[in-house]
Design goal:
Blueprint: E1 5-13, E2 16-23, E3 31-41, H1 43-50, E4 67-75, E5 87-90, H2 100-103, E6 128-132, E7 136-138, H3 145-148, H4 151-164, E8 171-175, H5 179-189, E9 195-199, H6 203-211, E10 216-218, H7 220-223, E11 230-235, H8 242-249, E12 250-258, H9 271-277, E13 280-283, H10 289-301, E14 310-314, H11 319-325, E15 335-338
Parallel strand pairs: 8-9, 8-11, 9-10, 11-12, 12-13, 14-15
Antiparallel strand pairs: 1-2, 3-4, 3-6, 3-15, 4-5, 5-7
Helix pairs in contact: 4-5, 4-10
Length: about 350
């Protein structure tokens, strides 16, 4: 039986949060209530907490948490009651579904205005979460919900893979071996590349990438000798120099997918190199519905195994300790979860 109250972590303003207990929310028409099993903390959440996220992409006070998994425990009017008890994840963007971009399937480019779970809408650093039922992606009944909490970053990577169009036998590089990079290695390995190189300054992350299917691992200094080699480069680091260096790794006529969240002052891409090399460069922000479907399908088939990326788990009460680890720079910190 559902408790009459639930807890949530509310960030009132940058640097200030509190654990709030309130009545369990009731789902409205078209909504479901999910009992949260696990919620991942990423650098975007740290930016919200520190006040470094662009003001257009956050609304305080806010309950963060856009990477999550859980079980449907109640449905609102007009929603199939058969969803109750199903394990699930859900898209974060609250796309309108009717604008020109949504009708073309580009839900991450919705023209209806930015709205996203955990940034402008209450997120999953809570016992329960309300989401529109139309955004759900159902999981197998035996799905590992701890691992499934990483399906949001996996969907972002799936969007990059869709944009990059890897073909069997191609030379592929992944720049960055954080959560996004290691998920990218797993998805790209399934496309049977001829080479799958990873570039990261941390030796331990390079070794983990090899365990996940990479064929070689390099530091940024070593990768300088590989410029112009790769058919496809997937950038996941968001470091000041990685957009430009990723373009240099691509061969003439190659493809580059940028998924990192860059900050002002990052090194620009050389327009002369871009034009003479005839590169195809795509950026990825969030994930459209099709990429979510790809990620969930890969997870359900066992092609994507995110559980090994989780290094720390904390209860909601330990939010401050948990978020302090994210962005700490420690090679021993991978994905940090809150488990209500």
């Amino acid at each position: 039986m559902t408790s009459r109250t639930g807890r949530s972590v509310v960030v009132e303003r940058p640097g200030s949060h509190r654990l709030v207990t309130a009545a369990v929310p009731e789902p409205g028409p078209g909504e479901v209530r999910v009992r949260v099993a696990a919620a991942g903390i990423c650098m975007s959440d740290r930016e919200v907490y520190d006040g470094h996220r662009d003001a257009a992409y956050v609304r305080y006070p806010v309950v963060p948490g856009h990477e999550w998994s859980g079980t449907v425990e109640a449905v609102g009017a007009g929603v199939d009651p058969g969803l109750v008890g199903r394990r699930t994840v859900a898209e974060g963007f609250r796309a309108c579904g009717v604008c020109a971009r949504c009708r073309c399937g580009e839900t991450s480019l919705c023209e209806g205005g930015y709205a996203e779970t955990g940034f402008t809408e209450p997120g999953a650093f809570a016992d329960q979460l309300l989401v529109p039922a139309r955004l759900l992606h159902l999981l197998p009944d035996d799905a590992d919900l701890r691992a499934a909490a990483l399906l949001e970053p996996a969907a972002v990577v799936a969007a990059a893979v869709r944009a990059g169009r890897p073909a069997p036998g191609e030379r592929v590089a992944v720049v960055g071996a954080g959560t996004l990079g290691l998920l990218a290695v797993q998805l790209l390995a399934a496309s049977s590349p001829g080479e799958l190189a990873v570039v990261d300054p941390r030796a331990a992350r390079g070794k983990q990438a090899l365990d996940f299917g990479a064929t070689e691992a390099h530091t940024p200094g070593q990768a300088a000798a590989l410029e112009g080699r790769f058919d496809l480069v997937v950038e996941t680091a968001g470091a000041p120099s990685t957009a430009a260096s990723s373009c240099r790794l691509a061969r003439r006529g190659g493809r580059v997918a940028l998924t990192g969240m860059f900050t002002p002052g990052a090194e620009g891409i050389d327009p002369v190199h871009l034009s003479l090399s005839q590169l195809e460069v795509r950026s990825v922000f969030g994930a459209p519905s099709a990429a979510w479907s790809d990620a969930v399908r890969a997870f359900s088939l066992g092609l994507l195994a995110p559980a090994a990326l989780v290094t720390h788990e904390f209860p909601l009460e330990a939010f401050e300790e948990a978020i302090s680890l994210v962005g700490s720079g420690s090679s021993e910190v991978g994905k940090v979860l809150l488990t209500p």
